[in-house]
Design a protein that fits this description.
heterodimer, A: 303 residues, alpha/beta, Rossmann fold, Alpha-Beta Plaits, 2 domains, 6-stranded mixed beta sheet, 5-stranded antiparallel beta sheet, 33% helix, B: 259 residues, mainly alpha, 10 helices, 0% strand, globular
C-alpha cells in the first residue's frame, strides 16, 4: 500500500532542548491517523516540520513517497492543513480569505469556495468579516480552507479546539465522511483521547518528543477488549481445554500461565468449573478491560 | 503553475490582504499630507498682488519644501510602517502557518511582498507628485514651467528608486522581530537622523551623502539645489546597503523557522 507520509529518524532541537527525538511516522493512504500526546509532547512541532514551517535538525520526511525538495514543493498542493490556531485576515470576509487561498494554491475554479463553505456548513457567512467570527466558526472556516483545493492528505492540529459538543460531533462526522467518500487521508493531532478514539484507524502516541507506539486501532481495540484474565498452573493444558471442551478459539497466552480469553465472557464461572474439573489449578479469574486512556497512561509510564 | 502566474497571484493576494486595511488610508494620507499643509497655509494668504516671477518663486519653494521634508523625514517613517505591516501581519494574524505551506517557495513569497511594498511606495510618490501640482494650480492658477516639471519628475523617479534600496533594512527588522513596532521605531529614528544629516547637507558639506538614510533625498539636493554628488560614495553606500541587507533578508527568509 502507498504511504502518504513517512518520517525517518526525524529530530528537532531548540538550543539544548530536544523537542522531537527519532520520530518514525508511517501513514498509509486512506488512514485516519490519530496523533496523540499531552500538551507539549511535540505534536505541533512534528506537524510543523512535515509542512516545512520548521527545519528538522536531522532526519527525512517523505510525502507521497517523495522527499521534499525545492523542485517538488507542488507536493503541498496535495495537502490541506490547519495548524494550531486557524489564522485569517480579520479585515477580510470568509469568502475573500478563501479566495486568497484558492489563488495561492493555483485553483482556477471559483466555485470551490462555495463548495468548501457548504461542506463545513458555513455558506451563510461567506460575506461576513472574519473578525466577527467566534473561535468555533474560525475552526470550521479553517477546515473549509484546508479542503478547498481537494487535497489527498489533510493535517488537522487540534481541530476541535474551541468547539461546543455539537460542533465536535459535526467535525467528527465531517472527517469520517471525507475519509469514506473522498478517500482523504487524515493526520489529526489531539490531546483528547475520546476524540481520537472515535475517529482514528491508526494511533501514534508521542510523549516528550518520542513516538512511543504506532498501532492500528483494530489492534488497539483487540488489546483493549474485555477479556477474562486467567492465571493457571499449566497454560498448554488450559488452552487445549478451552479449545476442545469449551470451543473457545479467541484467546492468547499473554505470559507464562497467564491467558486472556476474549469470548464467552459471560460464562466465566463455567470456564472456571471445567478447568478445575480437569485438574487445573486456577489462581485468578476475572473480567478486565483497558480503555484507550489506560493504554495511553500505561505507554507513557504514568500508570 | 507558471512562474509568472504564480508571482502575479502572490502580488495580487498581497494587495487583496490590504483591502479594507488602514495601510491604504495611510499611504493616501501621507501622499497628501505635506501638500495639504502648504495648501491650508496658502489659502490664508493673498497672492493677488504678487508678480509672475514672485509666484513662480513661491511655487518652486513650496514644491521643494514638500519634497525635502517627505523624502528625508515623513516617507521613511510611513514606509517603515507599511513594510512592518506587510511583513509582520502574517505572524500577528497567525496566517504564517498557512502562507508558508503553499507550493510557492519562501523566496518567492518574500519577493512578492517586496514588490508589493515597492508598488505602494511608488503609489505614495505618485499621489504626492500629483497632489502637489494640483494644490499649486488651485493656489496660484498657474503651473511651474515645463523645465522645472521635467526636473521634478527626474527627482521623484531617482528618489523612488533610491527609496527601494532602503526597503530591505526595515524588512529584515520586521522579519526578525515579527513585531510592527520595531520597524516603526527604526523609521522614526531614521527620520530624525535624516533631519540631522539634512542640516549637514544644507551647510554645503557632502560627507552626509554617505549616510544611506539620506539616499532618497539626494536627487532633490542635486537637481533642485544644485549640490554636487560624490557618485563613488553614493553608489558605494547604496550597493553596500542594499547588498548586505538584501542578503540577510533572503538568508533569514530561507532559513528561519516559522513559529
Amino acid at each position: 500500500m502507498d504511504y502518504i507520509l513517512r518520517t525517518h529518524n526525524l529530530n528537532k532541537k531548540f538550543k539544548n532542548f530536544s523537542a522531537i527525538k527519532n520520530l518514525n511516522m508511517n501513514i498509509k493512504q486512506g488512514e485516519i491517523y490519530g496523533f496523540l500526546g499531552e500538551n507539549g509532547a511535540g505534536k505541533t512541532t512534528a506537524i510543523r516540520m512535515i509542512m516545512g514551517l520548521i527545519r528538522p535538525t536531522a532526519g527525512e520526511i517523505e510525502l507521497f513517497s517523495q522527499g521534499i525538495t525545492k523542485q517538488n514543493r507542488n507536493l503541498f498542493q496535495r495537502i490541506g492543513s490547519m495548524i494550531e490556531y486557524p489564522g485569517f485576515y480579520p479585515n477580510l470576509t470568509a469568502g475573500e480569505n478563501l479566495d486568497i487561498h484558492r489563488r495561492m494554491m493555483g485553483i482556477q475554479d471559483k466555485e470551490s469556495i462555495i463548495n468548501a463553505l457548504k461542506i463545513t456548513g458555513i455558506q451563510d457567512v461567506k460575506n461576513k468579516k472574519v473578525k466577527e467570527f467566534s473561535l468555533g466558526m474560525k475552526q470550521r472556516l479553517g477546515i473549509a480552507r484546508a479542503i478547498l483545493h481537494h487535497p489527498e492528505f489533510l493535517i488537522l492540529d487540534e481541530p476541535t479546539n474551541g468547539l461546543d459538543p455539537s460542533g465536535i460531533k459535526e467535525i467528527r462526522e465531517l472527517i469520517l465522511d471525507l475519509c469514506n467518500t473522498q478517500g482523504i487521508t487524515f493526520l489529526i493531532s489531539s490531546h483528547i483521547l475520546s476524540e481520537i478514539q472515535q475517529m482514528a484507524t491508526k494511533i501514534g502516541i508521542i510523549h516528550k518528543g518520542e513516538l512511543l507506539e504506532e498501532i492500528e486501532y483494530d489492534e488497539l481495540q483487540r488489546r483493549n477488549r474485555h477479556y477474562i484474565n486467567l492465571k493457571v498452573n499449566d497454560d498448554k493444558k488450559a488452552s487445549i481445554i478451552l479449545e476442545q471442551k469449551l470451543n473457545i478459539n479467541d484467546y492468547v497466552i499473554w505470559e507464562k500461565n497467564n491467558l486472556r480469553v476474549y469470548e464467552n465472557l459471560e460464562q466465566a464461572s463455567d470456564i472456571n468449573k471445567i478447568l478445575v474439573s480437569n485438574d487445573l489449578r486456577v489462581d485468578e479469574l476475572c473480567v478486565k478491560a483497558d480503555s484507550l486512556e489506560d493504554y495511553f497512561l500505561k505507554i507513557t509510564g504514568k500508570q | 503553475m507558471f512562474g509568472g502566474t504564480l508571482m502575479f497571484n502572490i502580488i495580487y493576494s498581497e494587495f487583496a490582504k490590504l483591502k479594507k486595511s488602514y495601510i491604504l488610508i495611510i499611504v493616501f494620507i501621507s501622499g497628501c499630507l505635506l501638500p495639504g499643509i502648504y495648501f491650508s497655509d496658502a489659502i490664508t494668504n493673498d497672492f493677488s498682488n504678487l508678480s509672475q516671477v514672485e509666484i513662480q518663486h513661491c511655487i518652486k519653494n513650496q514644491m521643494i519644501n514638500v519634497e525635502a521634508l517627505s523624502f528625508q523625514f515623513l516617507f521613511i517613517i510611513v514606509f517603515s510602517l507599511v513594510i512592518g505591516y506587510v511583513f509582520t501581519r502574517e505572524f500577528t494574524d497567525k496566517t504564517a502557518n498557512i502562507l508558508y505551506t503553499y507550493p510557492s517557495s519562501r523566496i518567492k513569497i518574500f519577493i512578492g511582498k517586496f514588490i508589493t511594498v515597492g508598488i505602494l511606495i511608488m503609489i505614495t510618490y505618485l499621489i504626492q507628485f500629483f497632489i502637489s501640482y494640483l494644490v499649486v494650480y488651485i493656489e496660484f492658477r498657474v503651473l511651474p514651467p515645463a523645465e522645472f516639471i521635467i526636473k521634478d519628475i527626474k527627482v521623484n523617479i531617482y528618489s523612488v528608486l533610491l527609496q527601494l534600496i532602503l526597503i530591505p533594512i526595515p524588512v529584515l527588522i520586521a522579519n526578525i522581530t515579527k513585531n510592527i513596532i520595531i520597524p516603526i521605531v527604526y523609521g522614526a529614528l531614521g527620520g530624525i537622523i535624516g533631519l540631522g544629516v539634512m542640516t549637514i547637507l544644507m551647510s554645503g558639506s557632502i560627507y552626509g551623502q554617505i549616510c544611506p538614510l539620506v539616499l532618497p533625498a539626494l536627487p532633490f539636493y542635486h537637481y533642485h539645489r544644485g549640490d554636487p554628488i560624490d557618485y563613488i560614495a553614493v553608489v558605494g553606500s547604496a550597493v553596500i546597503t542594499f547588498g548586505i541587507s538584501m542578503f540577510l533578508c533572503i538568508y533569514h527568509s530561507k532559513n528561519s523557522d516559522v513559529n
